[in-house]
Every structure is written in C-alpha cells, then in structure tokens.
Amino acid sequence: MTFTSLSLAVEQGQAGIYRLLFEAYVKKYNWAYGDHLGEIHFLQQSFLFTLYLLARYGGEWRSNIFYEDCFLRAFPQLISQVHPVGSFYSPEKVVRFLAGTWASAGLRLQEP
Predict the structure, then answer these.
(1) CA distances, 96 to each of 6, 8, 25, 67 (Å)
(2) What is the DSSP string of the chain?
(3) CA angle at residue 37 from 100 to 95, to 5 degrees?
(4) What three-state secondary structure class fits 43?
(5) Could you read off the pLDDT of 42-99 as tens digits, one per residue?
(6) From residue 6, how far is each of 21, 81, 105 by CA, in Å?
(7) If we measure between CA atoms, which residue out of 65, 72, 62 comes closest to residue 92?
(8) Does position 26 have pLDDT exceeding 60, yes or no?
(9) What gap in Å lies between CA 54 and CA 49, rounded to an integer?
(10) Using CA atoms, how far apart are residues 107 and 36, in angstroms rounded to an integer?
(11) Which end of the chain is more exposed for a tag (fewer CB within 10 A), N or C?
C-alpha cells in the first residue's frame, strides 16, 4: 500500500480506497490487456456513457444486448474504427462484445 492509500484507509475505510482504485482502473489500466481484441481507445474513454446507461436503466434487469444497442446507437462511427478479429468477430461483434462486457461488469458491481 502506498502512503496515500494507507492514509485513505485509516481516514475513510474501504470507501476512501474505492475511488482511488476506480480512477486507476478507468484512467491508467489498459482494458484491452485481458481480452486480446486489440485496443479501442474510444471504448475506454466512453466509460462515462456506460455509467450513465447503468444509472438510467440499471434499476431493472436488461440483457447485454440492450446496452450494446444503446452504445451502438450513440456511437455508430466506432464500428468503422475497429478491425475484425479472425473470421468470427466482425467489427460490430467486437464493439458489441466489449460494450456489453463493461455494462455487465458495472451491473455486477451494483449487486448486494
């Protein structure tokens, strides 16, 4: 633990560290590291839109497809910036997979 995180833990408990971890995850961690689909910088930069969708619609269960459709309606130009992955993942499938994955990860964070 760094001095900053240790002092936050002492002063504010786990809630104090959460913001620090969240900011590091959003701003510094390369989300493409674990999925092997290549970097799509805009997808990571658009995390606020995903949070907006979760805040607006996350109160009731919706499928990943709902969030994928919302993302593609908001950012249709993204498909032209993504390369297919092999013969199975078209650019649209890549964007849908990643947008749906991050939305469902956000929903898992909200579970009690």
Answers:
(1) 38, 37, 21, 9
(2) --HHHHHHHHHHTHHHHHHHHHHHHHHTS-GGGTT-S---HHHHHTHHHHHHHHHHHTTS---HHHHHHHHHHH-GGGGGG---BTTTB-HHHHHHHHHHHHHHHHHHHH--
(3) 35
(4) helix
(5) 777 777 888 888 889 888 888 888 988 998 899 888 888 877 877 788 888 878 877 7
(6) 13, 41, 27
(7) 72
(8) yes
(9) 9
(10) 23
(11) C
Cβ atoms of residues 37 and 85 within 8 Å: yes
Model pTM greater than 0.85? no
**Interatomic CA distance for residues 101 and 56, integer angstroms:** 18
